[in-house]
Write a structure and sequence with these properties.
globular; 41% strand; EC 2.5.1.9; 3 helices; Elongation Factor Tu (Ef-tu), domain 3; 192 residues; 6-stranded antiparallel beta barrel; Riboflavin_synthase-like_b-brl; 2 domains; mainly beta; Riboflavin synthase
Length: 192
């Protein structure tokens, strides 16, 4: 379980069909192989690590469902260690189970924030609601508004400076994970 509060921007060293290697520093202080880490919102298991890097295994489903297959060496990735049972949840409950990869459609400067419109995959429409939670590349965000085809979020300067969402531009692929509590409620009500 994660909170969607990114701890560090890592750098992708290489990505292959069976795994990837990421350069990192801060998050490696207390991590060991076999532990979970969220890489751009994807819950993965550390299999090897060095002084300033770690390796995780990937499977074809991971590459199909997420933006990892689109990334080139040198790309920045959001990193978050799994939650400690005695810690704060600053964002919302994030599983690290990416449901879809979709594209940014528009970016508009609005005061000190960026208003970002993102294509809404049909399968996620019931779960993405105005003022609800969503994890984008592993970042816990609030949905500003929704329509049949898209939804919008606003990025404050801090989020842009400390996550890879600071690179957002039209056409950029993003990993999406809708709010697990919302998914449970919709599922329960649909079975009544």
């Amino acid at each position: 379980m994660f909170s969607g509060i990114v701890e560090e921007l890592g750098r992708l060293l290489y990505c292959e069909p069976t795994g990837l290697v990421v350069e990192a520093h801060l998050i490696l202080e207390d991590l060991r192989p076999k532990e979970s880490i969220a890489v751009d919102g994807i819950c993965l298991t550390i299999t090897e690590q060095g002084a300033d890097w770690f390796r995780v295994d990937t499977m074809p489903e991971t590459l199909r469902r997420t933006r990892l297959g689109h990334l080139q060496p040198g790309a920045s990735v959001n990193l978050e260690r799994s939650l400690l049972a005695n810690g704060r949840i600053g964002g919302h409950m994030v599983q690290g189970h990416v449901e879809a990869c979709t594209d940014v459609t528009t970016v508009i400067e609005e005061g000190n924030s960026l208003l970002v419109e993102i294509a809404l995959p049909p399968a996620l429409r019931p779960y993405v609601v105005s003022k609800g939670f969503i994890a984008i590349n592993g970042v816990s965000l609030t949905v500003v508004d929704t329509s049949e085809q898209s939804f919008s979020i606003a990025l404050i300067p801090y989020t842009r400076e400390h996550t890879n969402l600071g690179e957002v531009q039209p056409g950029m692929p993003l990993n999406l994970e809708s709010d697990i509590l919302g998914r449970y409620v919709v599922n329960y009500l649909s079975q009544r």
